[in-house]
Amino acid sequence: MALLAVAILGICMTGPIIAASDVPALALAAWRCAVGAAVIGLVTVVLRSQRRNWRRLNRQDVIGIALSGVFLAAHFGTWVPSIRMTTVASSTALVATQPVWAALFARWRGQRISRGMWLGITVALAGAVLLAGTDFAVASGRALLGDALALLGAVLAAAYVTAGERVRARVSTSVYSVGVYTVAGAALAAVCILVGDALWGFDRGGWGSILGLTLFGQLMGHTLINRVVPRLSATVTSTAILFEMPGSTLVAAVWLGQRPPGALWPSLVLVLLGLTIVLREQVRSASAAPA
Protein backbone atom coordinates (compact mmCIF):
# COMPACT_ATOMS: atom_id res chain seq x y z
CA MET A 1 0.00 0.00 0.00
CA ALA A 2 2.94 2.36 0.63
CA LEU A 3 4.09 1.96 -2.99
CA LEU A 4 0.56 2.65 -4.19
CA ALA A 5 0.49 5.86 -2.10
CA VAL A 6 3.74 7.04 -3.72
CA ALA A 7 2.27 6.23 -7.14
CA ILE A 8 -0.78 8.37 -6.40
CA LEU A 9 1.44 11.29 -5.37
CA GLY A 10 3.24 10.96 -8.68
CA ILE A 11 0.14 10.94 -10.85
CA CYS A 12 -1.33 13.92 -8.97
CA MET A 13 1.33 16.01 -10.74
CA THR A 14 0.51 14.64 -14.18
CA GLY A 15 -2.52 16.76 -15.12
CA PRO A 16 -1.02 20.11 -14.04
CA ILE A 17 2.26 19.40 -15.87
CA ILE A 18 0.37 18.55 -19.08
CA ALA A 19 -1.78 21.67 -18.78
CA ALA A 20 1.26 23.90 -18.20
CA SER A 21 3.36 22.46 -21.06
CA ASP A 22 3.38 23.88 -24.59
CA VAL A 23 4.53 20.56 -26.12
CA PRO A 24 1.85 19.00 -28.40
CA ALA A 25 -0.30 16.67 -26.32
CA LEU A 26 0.36 13.47 -28.29
CA ALA A 27 4.09 14.21 -28.48
CA LEU A 28 4.15 14.74 -24.73
CA ALA A 29 2.48 11.36 -24.23
CA ALA A 30 4.84 9.65 -26.69
CA TRP A 31 7.96 11.06 -25.03
CA ARG A 32 6.85 10.16 -21.50
CA CYS A 33 6.49 6.54 -22.60
CA ALA A 34 9.74 6.52 -24.58
CA VAL A 35 11.86 8.08 -21.83
CA GLY A 36 10.26 5.84 -19.21
CA ALA A 37 11.04 2.76 -21.32
CA ALA A 38 14.65 3.92 -21.82
CA VAL A 39 15.29 4.54 -18.11
CA ILE A 40 13.80 1.26 -16.92
CA GLY A 41 15.29 -0.61 -19.88
CA LEU A 42 18.76 0.52 -18.84
CA VAL A 43 18.17 -1.03 -15.43
CA THR A 44 17.09 -4.33 -16.96
CA VAL A 45 20.27 -4.41 -19.05
CA VAL A 46 22.57 -3.66 -16.11
CA LEU A 47 21.02 -6.11 -13.64
CA ARG A 48 21.74 -9.76 -14.40
CA SER A 49 18.52 -10.94 -12.73
CA GLN A 50 16.48 -8.72 -15.05
CA ARG A 51 18.30 -10.03 -18.12
CA ARG A 52 17.16 -13.51 -17.09
CA ASN A 53 13.57 -12.22 -16.86
CA TRP A 54 13.69 -11.19 -20.50
CA ARG A 55 14.64 -14.72 -21.52
CA ARG A 56 11.69 -16.16 -19.60
CA LEU A 57 9.11 -14.37 -21.73
CA ASN A 58 6.91 -16.66 -23.80
CA ARG A 59 4.64 -15.92 -26.75
CA GLN A 60 1.60 -15.40 -24.52
CA ASP A 61 3.50 -12.88 -22.39
CA VAL A 62 4.60 -10.91 -25.45
CA ILE A 63 1.05 -10.78 -26.79
CA GLY A 64 -0.26 -9.64 -23.41
CA ILE A 65 2.37 -6.92 -23.12
CA ALA A 66 1.66 -5.71 -26.65
CA LEU A 67 -2.09 -5.58 -25.96
CA SER A 68 -1.53 -3.66 -22.72
CA GLY A 69 0.75 -1.24 -24.57
CA VAL A 70 -1.89 -0.54 -27.19
CA PHE A 71 -4.49 0.15 -24.48
CA LEU A 72 -2.04 2.45 -22.68
CA ALA A 73 -1.33 4.37 -25.89
CA ALA A 74 -5.05 4.75 -26.51
CA HIS A 75 -5.55 5.95 -22.93
CA PHE A 76 -2.85 8.60 -23.26
CA GLY A 77 -4.02 9.51 -26.76
CA THR A 78 -7.45 10.45 -25.43
CA TRP A 79 -6.82 11.70 -21.90
CA VAL A 80 -3.74 13.90 -22.45
CA PRO A 81 -5.45 16.04 -25.13
CA SER A 82 -8.54 16.33 -22.94
CA ILE A 83 -6.59 18.31 -20.33
CA ARG A 84 -5.93 21.00 -22.93
CA MET A 85 -9.65 21.25 -23.75
CA THR A 86 -11.16 21.34 -20.27
CA THR A 87 -9.95 22.01 -16.73
CA VAL A 88 -7.60 19.74 -14.82
CA ALA A 89 -10.39 19.23 -12.26
CA SER A 90 -12.93 18.05 -14.85
CA SER A 91 -10.49 15.89 -16.80
CA THR A 92 -9.04 14.14 -13.75
CA ALA A 93 -12.48 13.63 -12.22
CA LEU A 94 -13.74 11.90 -15.35
CA VAL A 95 -10.61 9.82 -15.91
CA ALA A 96 -10.86 8.83 -12.25
CA THR A 97 -14.01 6.85 -13.15
CA GLN A 98 -11.57 4.17 -14.29
CA PRO A 99 -12.53 1.88 -11.35
CA VAL A 100 -16.15 1.94 -12.49
CA TRP A 101 -15.13 0.52 -15.84
CA ALA A 102 -12.67 -1.89 -14.21
CA ALA A 103 -15.53 -3.22 -12.09
CA LEU A 104 -17.76 -3.57 -15.15
CA PHE A 105 -14.96 -5.38 -16.98
CA ALA A 106 -14.67 -7.69 -13.96
CA ARG A 107 -18.41 -8.35 -14.14
CA TRP A 108 -18.08 -9.13 -17.84
CA ARG A 109 -15.36 -11.64 -16.94
CA GLY A 110 -17.79 -13.40 -14.60
CA GLN A 111 -17.03 -11.80 -11.24
CA ARG A 112 -19.97 -10.92 -8.99
CA ILE A 113 -20.75 -7.26 -8.27
CA SER A 114 -22.55 -6.51 -5.00
CA ARG A 115 -25.51 -4.17 -4.63
CA GLY A 116 -23.27 -1.68 -2.88
CA MET A 117 -20.87 -1.77 -5.82
CA TRP A 118 -23.73 -1.09 -8.24
CA LEU A 119 -24.79 1.82 -6.05
CA GLY A 120 -21.29 3.30 -6.17
CA ILE A 121 -21.10 2.84 -9.94
CA THR A 122 -24.47 4.57 -10.39
CA VAL A 123 -23.54 7.52 -8.16
CA ALA A 124 -20.14 7.97 -9.86
CA LEU A 125 -21.62 7.89 -13.35
CA ALA A 126 -24.39 10.30 -12.30
CA GLY A 127 -21.67 12.67 -11.11
CA ALA A 128 -19.84 12.29 -14.43
CA VAL A 129 -23.01 13.12 -16.40
CA LEU A 130 -23.70 16.14 -14.16
CA LEU A 131 -20.10 17.29 -14.56
CA ALA A 132 -20.33 17.17 -18.34
CA GLY A 133 -23.63 19.08 -18.25
CA THR A 134 -22.14 21.72 -15.98
CA ASP A 135 -19.10 22.14 -18.22
CA PHE A 136 -21.36 22.56 -21.24
CA ALA A 137 -23.44 25.19 -19.43
CA VAL A 138 -20.62 27.29 -17.95
CA ALA A 139 -17.79 26.62 -20.42
CA SER A 140 -17.99 25.63 -24.08
CA GLY A 141 -18.46 22.80 -26.54
CA ARG A 142 -14.69 22.37 -26.55
CA ALA A 143 -14.78 21.66 -22.82
CA LEU A 144 -17.52 19.09 -23.41
CA LEU A 145 -15.33 17.37 -26.03
CA GLY A 146 -12.51 17.35 -23.48
CA ASP A 147 -14.86 15.72 -20.98
CA ALA A 148 -15.81 13.03 -23.52
CA LEU A 149 -12.15 12.28 -24.25
CA ALA A 150 -11.36 12.05 -20.53
CA LEU A 151 -14.25 9.61 -20.01
CA LEU A 152 -13.05 7.48 -22.93
CA GLY A 153 -9.57 7.65 -21.45
CA ALA A 154 -10.96 6.19 -18.22
CA VAL A 155 -12.47 3.23 -20.08
CA LEU A 156 -9.18 2.60 -21.87
CA ALA A 157 -7.17 2.92 -18.64
CA ALA A 158 -9.37 0.27 -17.03
CA ALA A 159 -8.81 -1.95 -20.07
CA TYR A 160 -5.06 -1.41 -19.77
CA VAL A 161 -4.95 -2.37 -16.08
CA THR A 162 -7.25 -5.34 -16.60
CA ALA A 163 -5.31 -6.63 -19.61
CA GLY A 164 -2.06 -6.37 -17.68
CA GLU A 165 -3.29 -8.11 -14.53
CA ARG A 166 -2.68 -11.65 -15.74
CA VAL A 167 0.60 -10.83 -17.49
CA ARG A 168 1.95 -9.11 -14.38
CA ALA A 169 1.35 -12.30 -12.38
CA ARG A 170 4.11 -13.94 -14.47
CA VAL A 171 6.38 -11.10 -15.64
CA SER A 172 8.61 -8.82 -13.54
CA THR A 173 7.58 -5.17 -13.15
CA SER A 174 10.63 -3.80 -14.97
CA VAL A 175 10.34 -6.10 -17.99
CA TYR A 176 6.58 -5.53 -18.22
CA SER A 177 7.00 -1.75 -17.95
CA VAL A 178 9.70 -1.57 -20.62
CA GLY A 179 7.61 -3.63 -23.01
CA VAL A 180 4.37 -1.74 -22.43
CA TYR A 181 5.98 1.72 -22.54
CA THR A 182 7.88 0.84 -25.71
CA VAL A 183 4.72 -0.30 -27.50
CA ALA A 184 2.74 2.71 -26.27
CA GLY A 185 5.51 5.18 -27.14
CA ALA A 186 5.94 3.75 -30.65
CA ALA A 187 2.19 3.81 -31.28
CA LEU A 188 1.86 7.41 -30.10
CA ALA A 189 4.90 8.52 -32.11
CA ALA A 190 3.36 6.97 -35.21
CA VAL A 191 0.14 8.90 -34.59
CA CYS A 192 2.15 12.12 -34.15
CA ILE A 193 3.77 11.57 -37.54
CA LEU A 194 0.39 10.86 -39.14
CA VAL A 195 -1.27 14.01 -37.76
CA GLY A 196 1.78 16.24 -38.17
CA ASP A 197 2.60 16.90 -34.50
CA ALA A 198 6.25 17.80 -33.87
CA LEU A 199 8.26 15.27 -31.89
CA TRP A 200 11.34 17.49 -31.32
CA GLY A 201 12.55 21.07 -31.56
CA PHE A 202 11.13 22.09 -28.16
CA ASP A 203 12.62 24.76 -25.92
CA ARG A 204 14.12 24.10 -22.49
CA GLY A 205 10.73 24.41 -20.79
CA GLY A 206 9.21 21.88 -23.17
CA TRP A 207 11.90 19.30 -22.53
CA GLY A 208 11.64 20.04 -18.81
CA SER A 209 7.92 19.25 -18.87
CA ILE A 210 8.66 15.97 -20.68
CA LEU A 211 11.21 14.98 -18.03
CA GLY A 212 8.91 16.06 -15.18
CA LEU A 213 5.99 14.15 -16.64
CA THR A 214 8.16 11.06 -17.08
CA LEU A 215 9.47 11.26 -13.51
CA PHE A 216 6.17 11.88 -11.76
CA GLY A 217 3.60 10.30 -14.06
CA GLN A 218 5.53 7.43 -15.61
CA LEU A 219 8.24 6.29 -13.20
CA MET A 220 6.60 7.19 -9.88
CA GLY A 221 3.05 6.70 -11.12
CA HIS A 222 2.48 3.99 -13.70
CA THR A 223 5.56 1.93 -12.92
CA LEU A 224 4.73 1.61 -9.22
CA ILE A 225 1.11 0.84 -10.09
CA ASN A 226 2.38 -1.96 -12.36
CA ARG A 227 4.35 -3.26 -9.38
CA VAL A 228 1.37 -3.48 -7.01
CA VAL A 229 -1.14 -4.95 -9.50
CA PRO A 230 -0.05 -8.56 -8.77
CA ARG A 231 -0.70 -7.98 -5.06
CA LEU A 232 -4.00 -6.14 -5.45
CA SER A 233 -6.84 -6.68 -7.90
CA ALA A 234 -7.21 -4.43 -10.93
CA THR A 235 -10.35 -2.93 -9.40
CA VAL A 236 -8.64 -2.03 -6.09
CA THR A 237 -5.66 -0.54 -7.90
CA SER A 238 -7.89 1.42 -10.26
CA THR A 239 -10.06 2.66 -7.40
CA ALA A 240 -7.09 3.94 -5.40
CA ILE A 241 -6.23 6.17 -8.34
CA LEU A 242 -9.37 8.20 -7.59
CA PHE A 243 -7.26 10.21 -5.15
CA GLU A 244 -5.66 11.80 -8.20
CA MET A 245 -8.79 13.91 -8.53
CA PRO A 246 -8.53 16.04 -5.36
CA GLY A 247 -4.73 16.04 -5.52
CA SER A 248 -4.51 17.27 -9.11
CA THR A 249 -7.28 19.81 -8.53
CA LEU A 250 -5.37 21.27 -5.56
CA VAL A 251 -2.07 21.43 -7.47
CA ALA A 252 -3.78 23.06 -10.49
CA ALA A 253 -5.47 25.61 -8.25
CA VAL A 254 -2.21 26.63 -6.58
CA TRP A 255 0.11 26.36 -9.59
CA LEU A 256 -2.12 27.28 -12.55
CA GLY A 257 -4.88 29.27 -10.86
CA GLN A 258 -7.51 26.80 -12.14
CA ARG A 259 -10.18 27.02 -9.46
CA PRO A 260 -13.29 24.99 -10.37
CA PRO A 261 -16.47 27.10 -10.57
CA GLY A 262 -18.95 26.63 -7.75
CA ALA A 263 -21.40 24.83 -10.03
CA LEU A 264 -18.84 22.09 -10.65
CA TRP A 265 -18.35 21.06 -7.02
CA PRO A 266 -21.58 19.01 -6.61
CA SER A 267 -20.62 16.80 -9.56
CA LEU A 268 -17.06 16.40 -8.27
CA VAL A 269 -18.42 15.36 -4.88
CA LEU A 270 -20.78 12.83 -6.50
CA VAL A 271 -17.95 11.26 -8.52
CA LEU A 272 -15.73 11.01 -5.45
CA LEU A 273 -18.57 9.63 -3.31
CA GLY A 274 -19.46 6.98 -5.88
CA LEU A 275 -15.86 5.90 -6.31
CA THR A 276 -15.39 5.75 -2.54
CA ILE A 277 -18.37 3.38 -2.30
CA VAL A 278 -16.85 1.21 -5.05
CA LEU A 279 -13.55 1.07 -3.15
CA ARG A 280 -15.24 0.16 0.14
CA GLU A 281 -17.27 -2.59 -1.49
CA GLN A 282 -14.27 -4.00 -3.32
CA VAL A 283 -12.15 -4.07 -0.18
CA ARG A 284 -15.01 -5.73 1.73
CA SER A 285 -15.36 -8.34 -1.02
CA ALA A 286 -11.61 -9.02 -1.07
CA SER A 287 -11.47 -9.45 2.72
CA ALA A 288 -14.41 -11.87 2.65
CA ALA A 289 -12.89 -14.06 -0.07
CA PRO A 290 -11.35 -17.36 1.07
CA ALA A 291 -7.54 -17.38 1.35
Quick synopsis:
This protein has 291 residues and is an all-alpha fold.
What does this structure look like?
Helix content is 81%, strand content 0%. Helix 5 packs antiparallel against helix 9 (141-168) and helix 12 (234-240) runs antiparallel to helix 14. The longest helix has 28 residues, at 141-168. It has 14 helices and no strands. It has helices spanning 2-12, 14-20, 25-46, 48-55, 59-85, 88-95, 98-108, 115-138, 141-168, 173-195, 204-228, 234-240, 244-255, 265-288. With 291 residues, the protein is mainly alpha-helical. The model has no long low-confidence stretch (mean pLDDT 86). The chain is globular, with a radius of gyration of 18 Å.
Keywords:
14 helices; 0% strand; 81% helix; mainly alpha; 291 residues
Largest sheet report: none
Q: Roughly what is the average pLDDT, rounded to an integer? A: 86
From the spread of the alpha carbons, the general shape counts as: globular
Spans of at least 5 consecutive residues whose pLDDT stays below 50 are none
* Succession of helices and strands: HHHHHHHHHHHHHH
Helix content: over 70%
Layout of strands and helices, then pairs:
Blueprint: H1 2-12, H2 14-20, H3 25-46, H4 48-55, H5 59-85, H6 88-95, H7 98-108, H8 115-138, H9 141-168, H10 173-195, H11 204-228, H12 234-240, H13 244-255, H14 265-288
